[in-house]
Write a structure and sequence with these properties.
Order of helices and strands: EHEHEEHEHEEHEEEHEEHEHHHHH
Radius of gyration: 20 Å
Structural class: alpha/beta
CATH superfamily of the largest domain: NAD(P)-binding Rossmann-like Domain
Distance between the termini: 40 Å
Largest sheet: 7 strands, parallel
Shape: globular
Number of strands: 13
Strand content: 15-25%
Helix content: 40-55%
Length: 306
C-alpha cells in the first residue's frame, strides 16, 4: 500500500465510493479540489486537500509533492463549455502526468474505459486511448483500468435511463437496442482496485473487465424497469432520427415540459456509445481478481427503490 495517495476525481461517482473504502486506512489521502465546497466535503471525511485544476497546469504545481501513488478518475461523457473530451481527457491527463513526473511519483493509476481506441467512432473512447498513451509514455510505472459500465447509487448512466423510463407512456430506445454491455456494481469495481493496489504485479498492466453478463441495452432497460416496478413498452426509434433530434430528443423534451419533468440531455456522443458493444470476457473479474462479481439485477436491488 502506498504511503500517500493523491486522487483526482474524488468527488465523482466512482471516486466517492473509493474514498469511502480508503477512509481510515493506513495510507494518507490527498484529494484534488477545484473549489471550497468540494474541499469541505473532503475535509469532513479527514482527507487532505490540494487546490488545483487539471485544465490549468500551473495550478497543479506542488500538489503531488511527497505523493507515492496518483489515481486519476477524471472523465466526462458529455462536453460542456471548456470541459471538452480533448481538454479533460488529453490535456488534463498530460498536465497531471507532467506534475507527477516532476514530483517523483512512483505509480500512476488511470481509469480508462472498455473499448478505448484511437480508431473508435466515439470521441470519448478516442480521447481515453490518447490519455492512456500519455500515461504509458510518462516513464512512471502505471496501471490502467478499462471497465465496462459501472453502476450504483446515483451513477449517471442509470439516472438518465431512469428519467427516460419515467417520462412518458412508452420508453424510447435509439436504434435496435442490441448493443451489448457488461454492467458492474461499483463496490465490485472498488474490490478490483484494492486488489490491484496491493498486487505489486499490477504496475505496467492494463486490465479489461466488467460484470458477469453480456446484456443488450434492451435487457438493461427491462431489468431496470423491473427494479423500478414499472411496466412500459419499449419503442425503438431510428438512430438517424435520434441524432437529428427527432423525435427522441425533441419530443422527449417537449413531453417533459408538458409533464413538468426534467429529462437529462442526450448528445450525439452518447448515442454513438449506445450503438457500440462494450464487452469483454464475462469471467474477467474472477480470472484476474479472484472473485465473482454480482449480476446487474443484484446490483440494482442494492440501490433502486420502486
Amino acid at each position: 500500500m502506498a504511503r500517500t495517495i493523491f486522487i483526482a476525481g474524488g468527488s465523482g461517482f466512482i471516486g466517492s465510493h473509493l474514498l469511502e473504502a480508503l477512509k481510515g486506512g493506513p495510507a494518507g489521502i490527498r484529494c484534488l479540489a477545484r473549489n471550497g465546497a468540494r474541499a469541505d466535503r473532503f475535509r469532513e471525511n479527514g482527507f487532505d486537500i490540494a487546490f488545483g485544476d487539471l485544465l490549468h497546469r500551473d495550478s497543479l504545481k506542488g500538489c503531488l509533492d511527497g505523493v507515492d501513488l496518483v489515481i486519476d478518475l477524471v472523465g466526462i461523457v458529455q462536453e460542456k463549455s471548456e470541459f471538452t473530451f480533448e481538454r479533460v481527457h488529453v490535456e488534463g491527463t498530460k498536465n497531471l502526468v507532467d506534475e507527477a513526473a516532476r514530483a517523483g511519483v512512483r505509480h500512476l493509476f488511470y481509469q480508462s474505459s472498455l473499448g478505448a481506441s484511437k480508431e473508435s467512432s466515439s470521441q470519448f473512447l478516442r480521447t481515453k486511448a490518447e490519455a492512456e498513451e500519455i500515461v504509458r509514455r510518462s516513464g512512471i510505472p502505471c496501471t490502467i483500468f478499462r471497465p465496462s459500465v459501472i453502476v450504483g447509487e446515483k451513477d449517471a448512466f442509470t439516472e438518465k435511463l431512469k428519467a427516460v423510463i419515467r417520462l412518458g407512456p412508452v420508453v424510447p430506445v435509439p436504434g435496435d437496442g442490441n448493443a451489448r454491455f457488461q454492467p458492474m456494481d461499483v463496490h465490485d469495481w472498488v474490490k478490483c482496485f484494492l486488489i490491484a493496489l496491493e498486487d505489486g504485479r499490477a504496475a505496467g498492466k492494463t486490465f479489461e473487465f466488467g460484470g458477469p453478463e453480456h446484456l443488450t441495452y434492451n435487457e438493461i432497460v427491462i431489468q431496470l424497469m423491473d427494479a423500478m416496478e414499472i411496466r412500459k413498452r419499449i419503442v425503438h426509434l431510428p438512430m438517424s432520427f435520434a441524432r437529428a433530434g427527432v423525435p427522441f430528443v425533441g419530443l422527449a423534451k417537449g413531453l417533459a415540459r408538458f409533464l413538468g419533468r426534467k429529462i437529462p440531455p442526450v448528445t450525439g456522443e452518447q448515442l454513438t456509445l449506445l450503438g457500440i458493444d462494450n464487452i469483454c470476457d464475462p469471467d474477467s473479474v474472477e480470472k484476474t481478481f479472484g472473485f465473482k462479481p454480482i449480476t446487474y439485477r443484484e446490483a440494482l436491488r442494492k440501490f433502486i427503490r420502486p
